[in-house]
Design goal:
Blueprint: E1 14-18, E2 25-29, H1 30-36, H2 49-54, H3 60-80, H4 83-99, H5 103-119, H6 126-135, H7 141-150, H8 154-163, H9 166-172
Length: 180
């Protein structure tokens, strides 16, 4: 009636995804399959989502997929304002950050945590501000764009966006940071 749906025994299911670069088959909780298909059923276990992912996720490649699940949760929150989704995203990204051993992705994960805090109106700490400002000194315009958005520096963000390649622009407009 209100567009909601239920899948019975959904929390007992699992799924898999394939890493495009290595053809490795990676197992995940059913959440991952649903989120990458834009499905967020009411009876899915969101409150203890991290424990569901812990059953399957063991490496950096899997953490990248979890990050995309988090972005899906953020996008759906932006559409629905369902706080269950943004809280699930926050729990997951905090766990991803704690599990991550790949320095290359640390900034991306941290920016995703900060965009969740921004949406939840959680004040940034001094350390958060220092991190956002330090991103301005890196040679990565996509990260600079995201940091400027989170710092409410709209003109600077526009400048960084205009410096991106067309491919980078097309990619970033798909991410929830672009809607802030």
């Amino acid at each position: 009636e209100n567009g909601a749906f239920r899948l019975y025994d959904i929390n007992k299911c699992s799924s898999h995804r394939v890493n495009e670069h290595s053809d490795e088959r990676l197992n995940f909780p059913i959440h991952s399959y649903l989120f990458c298909n834009g499905l967020y059923p009411d009876n899915l276990q969101y409150s203890d989502i991290v424990s569901e992912y812990k059953k399957y996720v063991v490496n950096d490649s899997q953490l990248l997929f979890v990050n995309f699940d988090i972005l899906g949760l953020i996008n759906e929150y932006d559409k629905s304002n369902n706080e269950i989704l943004i809280n699930a995203a926050k729990s997951l990204i905090e766990w991803v950050i704690s599990m991550n051993e790949n320095e290359e992705y640390s900034s991306v994960y941290r920016l995703n945590l900060l965009q969740i805090k921004y949406r939840l109106k959680i004040e940034f700490s001094e350390e958060d501000y220092q991190f956002l400002c330090s991103k301005q000194r890196k040679d990565n315009r996509t990260l600079d764009f995201a940091a400027a958005i989170l710092l409410n520096e709209k003109q600077r963000a526009k400048s960084y966006f205009n410096q991106l390649t067309e491919s980078e622009r097309n990619e970033i407009i798909q991410f929830p940071i672009y809607t802030l």
